Write the structure tokens for this entry.
Amino acid sequence: MQYEVELKYPLPDPGRVCESIDALGAHWSPAIRQSDVYFAHPQRDFALTDEAFRLRTVGEKHWLTYKGPLVDRETKTRQEVEVSLADGPLTAQQVMSMLSSLGFREVRRVEKTRRSAHINWQNWDVEISLDGVDRLGDFIEIEIIADEDRWELAKAAALSLADHLALSNSERRSYLQMLIEQNGAA
């Protein structure tokens, strides 16, 4: 089983942080637009179980993602299972129809622009993402994928990198949670 070890921080000064990340040898990908549709399960309340299920679309590409409950109180570490779907505009419509037929209900869409970079930090491949989230603002995410028996080592490395970048005010809520708290489910 693999875990996504993730930290997220609000980013009041993206330029300063980007300079620090660039100094670590980062090469940024072009900005992409991500649209995430989150679903409610017909039999259990993901808000109570601390799980998430979404359909992500980037251009003509699509992924279904399940995120398990958080496993610690400091980070957003959790099991993540992601499945690539067929490309094309019809795929998202078909998946939405299938999930609706199975009793899943769309909760909310989260729209964001993302730039990502990979760096090596303490012998870990770290993905750093700068997110401009519609109606929420700018955030930075630090993510390391680790096996079940190494997630705590990955967590220590992620926290060390956040400290090195002088990040503060860690945000454990998902963008979905923040948007719902801001103005209710849509």
Remarks:
- The two ends are 33 Å apart (CA to CA).
